[in-house]
Write a structure and sequence with these properties.
By secondary structure, the protein is of the alpha/beta class. It has two domains: about 35-130 and about 255-320, Bordetella uptake gene, domain 1 (D-Maltodextrin-Binding Protein, domain 2, 3-Layer(aba) Sandwich); about 130-225, D-Maltodextrin-Binding Protein, domain 2, CATH 3.40.190. Helix content is about 45%, strand content about 20%. Strands 1, 2, 3, 4, 5, 6, 7, 8, 9 and 10 form a ten-stranded mixed beta sheet that branches. β1 (about 35-40), α3 (about 45-60) and β2 form a beta-alpha-beta unit. The radius of gyration is 23 Å and the shape is elongated.
Length: about 325
């Protein structure tokens, strides 16, 4: 009997020394309070849509309030910096995306965080492609014809984007590099002004999220040239991808992922991942993302980590090759 007692005591002391009891207790009680979900952009955009779509269901699943905290500024880097510096206790998460995770390291040498070192990936959420559309007067029906036309009119064809250094800007730069052509980039700060210039013919091309386009195309105000991702969209099945119509291997998609501060307890990351993946697989959630032109893309923390690393490498090369600079 004494031997068993001593063995049990020794076992418990071992668990305490390795932190196992603490981890088990944390897993059993997490979450014990509300969770702050940092949104690195103003209300109303794509990141805000993602959080609004998921937060209520996540709150119900965890039994705690999810508090959205919009921290816009500096192309989404301010919000991620706030998250990275928060206590790594599982009660602060953020929604990262292509721009502030994969593009920012290439543009900002003094970026206040390192996406590889300072974040604990939770899960990728979704993928959202763009579409290249043109003013109806442009004599090109696809990217192959656009490249041929641009070669005869260097620096004359203007394409608009959501801003200098944005993903939509780089989507156009890849076409220029791959086709060996020169086109004039015109950055915009809002969809309304870009749409006005496109409808009037002041610019010939615009790279836009899909949710803006159905009405424009149906009204004949623009014509689709190509989808930026590798597969066609169910929403626009007749629109070819840029990869199949002029630039083989072309694939530009905006993605969103849930991140936590580095060293966040594994139990918290595992619980958040489990609930978010389950929510993202719900039919009504998948339908909402499709309505916005995207697709859910949940996975493991390890998969998101590997994906982030590959995206940083990929976009660093594109930015270097295109010679793009931001202020």
């Amino acid at each position: 009997m004494k031997s068993n007692t001593y063995n049990n005591i020794a076992f418990c002391l071992t668990l305490l020394a390795t932190g196992t009891i603490t981890t088990i207790a944390y897993a059993q009680t997490y979450p014990a309070k509300s969770i702050r979900w940092i949104v690195p952009f103003p209300p109303g955009g794509g990141t805000d849509f993602v959080v609004r779509t998921l937060a209520q269901k996540l709150s119900e699943a965890l039994g705690q309030q999810i508090v959205a905290d919009n921290r816009p500024g500096s192309s989404g880097t301010i919000g991620l910096d706030v998250m990275a510096k928060a206590p790594p206790d599982g009660y602060t998460i953020a929604l990262g995306q292509t721009g502030n995770v994969a593009l920012a390291p290439a543009f900002y040498p003094k970026l206040p965080y390192d996406p590889r070192r300072d974040f604990a990936p939770v899960t990728r959420v979704s993928m959202a492609p763009f579409m290249l559309v043109a003013h109806p007067s442009l004599p090109a029906k696809n990217v192959r014809e656009l490249i041929a036309l641009a070669k005869t009119r260097p620096d004359e064809i203007a394409f608009g984007s959501s801003g200098n250094g944005s993903l939509s800007h780089l989507a156009g730069e890849i076409i220029k590099i791959s086709g060996g052509v020169r086109m004039l980039h015109v950055p915009y700060k809002g969809v309304a002004l870009a749409a006005s210039d496109l409808f009037s013919g002041r610019i010939s091309l615009y790279v836009s999220p899909l949710q803006n386009l159905a009405g424009w195309i149906q009204a004949g105000r623009v014509k689709p040239i190509g989808l930026t991702r590798a597969q066609r969209s169910n929403a626009f099945p007749d629109v070819p991808t840029i990869a199949e119509s002029g630039v083989p291997g072309y694939d530009v998609t905006n993605w969103y992922g849930v991140l936590a501060p580095a060293k966040t307890p594994a139990a918290a990351v595992t619980r958040l991942n489990s609930e978010l993946v389950r929510i993202l697989r719900m039919p009504d959630v998948q339908a909402r993302f499709r309505d916005e032109g995207g697709e859910v893309a949940p996975g493991t923390p390890e998969e998101l980590s590997a994906f982030v690393n590959s995206e940083i490498q990929r976009w660093g090369k594109v930015v270097h090759d295109a010679g793009v600079r931001v202020e």
